[in-house]
């Protein structure tokens, strides 16, 4: 029953902070909030608090697991999130193991549509940092599993595996 709502993370014009919005979620904030709740279940029940939820959101959402108050500390692209969280042992990218092949990809959305992002409209100096981040993200390898191979994967997955599906 929670409605779709975009740009729920841009809560201030200058300061980036871990947040959760339960009055509206987009596909990404739904995913990361659900993952934070799932991680929180490993905590003792007395730790099931908003502070613990935000701790897990910060751990997943920000480069190196820490928000430093800068918009540039947020992992804005799925492939950046995957690489950063895989490097830190928070997730394990199984794509290549499961038969994944290299994917051509680019990261240019934020540079091209900077006027759509509140932080970038209000802080033009962020655009150079975003462009550098996008260049780094685009230079990292990315794999995908062709649709024709998906039917044979289910028996190779375990409970708790998260599958990301994308299209052109």
Q: What distinguishing features does this structure have?
A:
mainly alpha, 6 helices, 168 residues, 35% helix, globular, 2 strands, single chain, two-stranded antiparallel ribbon
Structure description:
There is one protein chain. Helix content is 35%, strand content 2%. It has helices at residues 27-40, 50-61, 78-87, 109-112, 118-122, 126-139; strands at 101-102, 143-144. A two-stranded antiparallel ribbon has the order 1-2. The chain is globular. The two termini are 28 Å apart.
Order of SSEs:
HHHEHHHE
Helical content (DSSP H or I, runs of 4+) = 25-40%
How many E-type strands?
Answer: 2
The mean pLDDT is 92
Structural category: mainly alpha
Count the DSSP helices: 6
Arrangement of strands in the largest sheet? 1-2
User: Which stretches are low in confidence, meaning pLDDT under 50 for 5 or more residues running?
Assistant: none
Strand content: under 5%
Q: Biggest β-sheet, characterized?
A: 2 strands, antiparallel
């Amino acid at each position: 029953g929670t409605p779709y709502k975009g740009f729920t993370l841009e809560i201030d014009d200058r300061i980036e902070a871990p947040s959760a919005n339960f009055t509206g979620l987009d596909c990404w904030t739904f995913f990361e909030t659900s993952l934070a709740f799932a991680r929180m279940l490993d905590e003792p029940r007395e730790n099931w608090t908003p502070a613990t939820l935000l701790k897990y959101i910060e751990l997943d959402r920000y480069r190196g697991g820490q928000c430093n108050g800068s918009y540039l500390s947020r992992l804005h692209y799925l492939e950046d999130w995957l690489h950063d969280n895989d490097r830190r042992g928070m997730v394990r990218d199984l794509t290549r193991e499961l038969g994944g092949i290299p994917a051509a990809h680019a990261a240019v959305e934020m540079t091209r549509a900077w006027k759509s992002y509140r932080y970038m409209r209000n802080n033009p100096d962020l655009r150079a940092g975003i462009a550098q981040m996008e260049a780094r993200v685009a230079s990292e390898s990315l794999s995908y599993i062709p649709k024709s191979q998906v039917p044979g994967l289910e028996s190779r997955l375990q409970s708790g595996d998260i599958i990301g599906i994308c299209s052109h």
